[in-house]
Amino acid sequence: DIQMTQSPSSLSASVGDRVTITCRASQGISNYLAWFQQKPGKAPKSLIYAASNLQSGVPSKFSGSGSGRDFTLTISSLQPEDFATYYCQQYDSYPWSFGGGTKVEIK
Amino acid sequence: EVQLLESGGGLVQPGGSLRLSCAASEFTFSSYAMNWVRQAPGKGLEWVSGISGSGGSTYYADSVKGRFAISRDNSKNTLYLQMNSLRAEDTAVYYCARSDRASMVRGVTGYWGQGALVTVTS
What we know:
The complex is a heterodimer of chains A (107) and B (122).
Chain A: E1 4-7, E2 10-13, E3 19-25, E4 33-38, E5 45-49, E6 53-54, E7 62-67, E8 70-75, E9 85-90, E10 97-98, E11 102-106
Parallel strand pairs in A: 2-11
Antiparallel strand pairs in A: 1-3, 3-8, 4-5, 4-9, 5-6, 7-8, 9-10, 9-11
Chain B: E1 3-7, E2 10-12, E3 18-25, E4 34-39, E5 45-51, E6 58-60, E7 68-73, E8 78-83, E9 92-98, E10 111-112, E11 116-120
Parallel strand pairs in B: 2-11
Antiparallel strand pairs in B: 1-3, 3-8, 4-5, 4-9, 5-6, 7-8, 9-10, 9-11
């Protein structure tokens, strides 16, 4: 099974900051990597698929990159609505697996 | 707009059974694979099971294999998760999520329901 390791597990940032979250797969997954945003008490929201493709309606301040084992999610200028937990997920092979999550908090 | 509405959650004793449903609307249900993903209280996301658009292919996480069964009724636009031999560690919010294709191969889950809480306790 493929393990997904996210870092950091949490971070504190200010409005306007540039934030980067990393995700590493235990083996190569090509670009079959998705990113989700989850706010408390809500369902996850799909942000990015195929490592770097924005879902429809997702603002361009979100971007993703990477291939193989190493991936990043970047928020170019953090806004109040971006404070949430972010998860990566590999869908290259079953069982699908998620990273442990990165909680982005207000500094 | 795609709508996914889970139901059937609740309180159940260890060893008991429960069936979750996910009613889908505003898309051609049989054209898309579907998945169940759960989240234990205060924890991360865990994929549970998936089924192809036709229902002919199913997949399970090792943690639920042999205890849970995924199915779908394309005539009713409804996804199911039959959960048997429930354990305390199955306590979670269960989300249904739609893939972007009928096949189970490398599908992206772009749409999620609001979730159903299952609590397993004596």
